[in-house]
Write a structure and sequence with these properties.
Helix 1 packs antiparallel against helix 5 and helix 5 runs parallel beside helix 9. A hairpin with a 7-residue loop joins strand 9 and strand 10. The chain folds into two domains: 244 residues, Bira Bifunctional Protein, Domain 2 (BirA Bifunctional Protein, domain 2, 2-Layer Sandwich), CATH 3.30.930; 86 residues, Rossmann fold, CATH 3.40.50.800. It has 423 residues and is α+β, with helices and mostly antiparallel strands. The strands form three sheets. The protein has an eight-stranded mixed sheet. The protein has a five-stranded mixed sheet with strand order 13-12-14-15-16, sandwiched between helices. The protein has 15 helices and 16 strands. Helix content is 39%, strand content 21%. It binds one RNA strand of 75 nucleotides through helix 3, strand 6, strand 10, strand 11 and helix 11.
Amino acid sequence: MAGKYKVPRGTYDILPSESYKWQFITQKFREIAHLFNYREIITPIFESSGLFERSVGGNSDIVQKEMYKFKDKKGRQFALRPEGTAPVVRSYIENSLQMQPNASKLYYIAPMFRYDRPQKGRYRQFYQYGVENIGSENPAYDAEVIAMGYIFLEKLGLQNFSLEINSIGCSNCSQDYDKALIEYFSQYEAELCKDCRNRLQKNPKRVLDCKVPTCRKIAQNAPSMLDYLDEDCQNHFEKVQKYLQEMNIPFTVNPKIVRGLDYYTQTAFEFLNNNLGAQNAVCGGGRYNGLFQQLGGQNTPAIGFAGGMERLILSMENEGLSFGEEPHPQAFVVALGDEAKEFSLSLVHKLRNEKIATDTSYEKNSLKAQMKAADKSNALYCLILGDDELKTDTVTIKNMKTGEQKQIPLATLVQAIKQRTLV
RNA sequence: GUGGAUGUAGUUCAAUGGUAGAGCACUGGAUUGUGGUUCCAGGCGUUGUGGGUUCAAAUCCCAUCAUCCACCCCA
């Protein structure tokens, strides 16, 4: 039965058969976040467009082509948030969180919106989990944030992922480096692809990760960012690496990592999974020391990361990992005859009050149909109520896995289920 | 935004211009109170949508929408 309406392009429904996976992952993420003493922040789904134009960067693809913008009835210009960091920073500044205790470590799990062409692992509404560590430029926090991402993926059981890190320097080193890149690539301008010739002036670092073979070849001998770091940035980057080594977190330095959002400085990193096709970044982040000032706040260094739920789930499915058990009732009540049916209503209610997850079918009458329903519900126990049981104030309890069953006094039912469930 | 592939039942797929079908799933049943196995029965699907060609279109053509893949971008 095809209905009249369909989900908007690039969006999708998370159906009951999938939603428990979401719950499993978000619960794990919260656990890890709390383990590191991060606390949740929840910001609105839309913000003033200017927030993103100023933070993500007016020239970035995200702002230029991918933002869902709209005006409200008073003509105010808003955008559905395309990413999570800028809103957190906005909120931090607006609420003077630097004055509040325990507000420097924040996490979120929230939908983001980008008007991209949909593809595997790429959607127009997608979910990100992320953290922000605000207020310090100590490289220990860089290492801590990276460690958090690493432990999260590891705890989920992922095997096939790698960590790549880089330092893109502060604005000083970055300018020098851009100059050097332009100088280098200009020699080969004629051989570069059309896109890269364009990138060369606007954002020369982008040429480094072009996939066209000839550009790739030229990029191989391009000057490395690492040679252009000033002393501070170099020290910082070395410490990050040292701390990661001390925590036994494996990584490779990839000087070609470029971040698409303008606000990044110094440390940049990505967790990659090779089974995802073109959309292989499971999680990415970096330091953004300049962002607070750009948004009108005090000079406040910070570092964070964000990861995509959809890609994480794809990776886990690829590796055949468990998402925990699907929720199911503990007990399913089967009632035979009108009298028992009526009685089952209060029995079910009583069990639920006792925190025993219980279901029944008021619709089905035959024992067989009800047993089938009990089976499908994946309930641990089936509770059978018939004439015999009603007469003697008992109930037959059946273990659906082993097939064992026993007739017990109604008065002892709750206790019996609780004891058995614990085993 | 660019290029390519694909759209048939809930789902996976058949049907190459001549009556739309199968496996799985789903629902019911196989005499007196027992599920998972087995057997039987149950589908009026605008063949994504809209046009066109033809005596005749799921099938050929055009458009449109959607999905997938790649570019791009990034989570």
